[in-house]
Predict the 3D structure of the following.
Amino acid sequence: MIRLENISKSYQKGVPALNDVNIHINPGEFVFIVGDSGSGKSTLIKLLLAELEPSKGKIVINGKDLKGIKHRAIPKFRRNIGCVFQDFRLLPDRNVYENVAFAMRVIEAPKKEIKRKVPIMLSMVGLAAKYRSLPRQLSGGEQQRVAIARALVNEPKILLADEPTGNLDNKNAWEIMKLLDEINERGTTVVVVTHNMEIVNAMNKRVITIKKGVVVSDEDRGEDDEI
Amino acid sequence: MKFSTLLYNFVQGFKNIWRNKMFSLASIATMTACIFLFGLFYSLGTNFEKVVKDVEESVSVTVFFNEGISDVEVQRIGEAISQRREIAKYEYVSADQAWESFKDVYFDGDENAAASFAGDNPLANSANYQIYLSDVEGQDDLVTFLQSLDGVREVRYSQVAAKTLTDFNRLMKYIFVSIVAILIAVAVFLISNTITVGISVRKEEIAIMKLIGAKDSFVRSPFVVEGVAIGLIGSVIPLLILWVLYNRIITYVADKFKFLSGMMDFVPASTVFKTLVPVALLLGVGIGYIGSRFTLRKHLQV
Ligand SMILES: Nc1ncnc2c1ncn2[C@@H]1O[C@H](COP(=O)(O)OP(=O)(O)O)[C@@H](O)[C@H]1O
Ligand SMILES: [Mg+2]
């Protein structure tokens, strides 16, 4: 599903943000990526979204080799990947419904489909009642739910989350993580970058640790594998 | 792009104008001023051209024949003249007609003085073709051609009048073209500025669109709609103003300066606007389109 082989990435000339990274994620997995600030986690996410090109190495996602992907082909490629960020990135002048519907408009989904699916997504994230609110009228946790609904409304196979709970209090962070877990249960491959070790330790998932651009550990704490 | 997407982006374009009120308004105002000036120069130019044309049409070339030329030969020369494209019209003036008009001018109706020449037309050899040109620029060519014809004794023409008119015409064209070029440059620059502001205000939004998987055309189209709409509004307004103004002025001048009538006729509004409306609209829309595309390429890389 996601395969990084010998990936290195340097910005200009300096210390590489990522150095010879090898990661292999299977369909349906839930993976945490942890590491100190500046260790290269966001760089990794950007590489997966084809926002950046690796300096070295090979990335294959959904069977697609990103090497030399044409600028024109990138939009279509991204439609198979949902993404969520620390700062939510909602459109401030549009309400909850419009923010989610927007993702479908962008891919030119039929109107009927939009009308059918947006409410389903909103009730899945527990915001059906607030569909007319503007982002600034919502709590951080609620805004992140809208972002998740938007990321998933086009049914991507992969969901990437870069510090989705970074701006949230503990209670909201937990709720978002539980939601991501549910989404994973339904079959979506989920990759979550986070700082919140408390949650990581409690959730018993595969954890990849990056330090200064290098993968220092990759352990599967999945319950199934425990003896 | 699907129709519903098109419609969506169309609406977004207008929302952009609204969100970006001050700059949109400034662009529309400048656009209006530019197109207004363009229209003003065009209407003035059209009327000027008419005046020049009237003068041009009074410029004539006279062709005299060899002594004792036959009627057949005169007719042949006439046919040769009629083939020329720079000719508006030509007429044959017989020796008698020439004498009549000469008498009118020189003896000023003094029949006795004129009568002393009775029966002996002193202008017996002055039968001629009077040629009026449609375009004075062609006079030199025509004269050369006429002089080369068999049976032509003399070609009389005014070098100065033709040259002055030709030079004047050229000057007017250069002035008009330069003014229009400047106006277009200013308008493109302003539209481009508005779009740049629009892009910087919505940088976030554009980044989000791209992450979600929006195609370049999707990101671009609201901005193009915005530019074209500004261009369109900015050309409709000045056209309306010009229409009202033009008609008012015609009526006013015709009323106040009755003694001028006949000497100076205005080109009717319908004639002026038949060309001005499509040209101005095209110009407005074109400037809006090019201005926004140009800016998008520069700032969006989409
Ligand atoms: N656009 C950029 N230009 C130059 N250096 C960058 C850029 N983005 C990130 N970096 C550098 O790359 C390293 C990794 O950054 P990042 O991937 O954002 O880390 P993390 O998300 O783990 O905090 C850092 O040293 C950071 O300063
Ligand atoms: Mg980061």
Q: What stands out?
A: The interface with chain A takes residues 1-2, 4-5, 8, 19, 204-205, 207-216, 218 of chain B (CB under 8 Å). The pocket of adenosine-5'-diphosphate (ligand 1) is lined by residues A 11, 17, 35, 37-43 (CB under 6 Å). The radius of gyration of chain B is 30 Å.
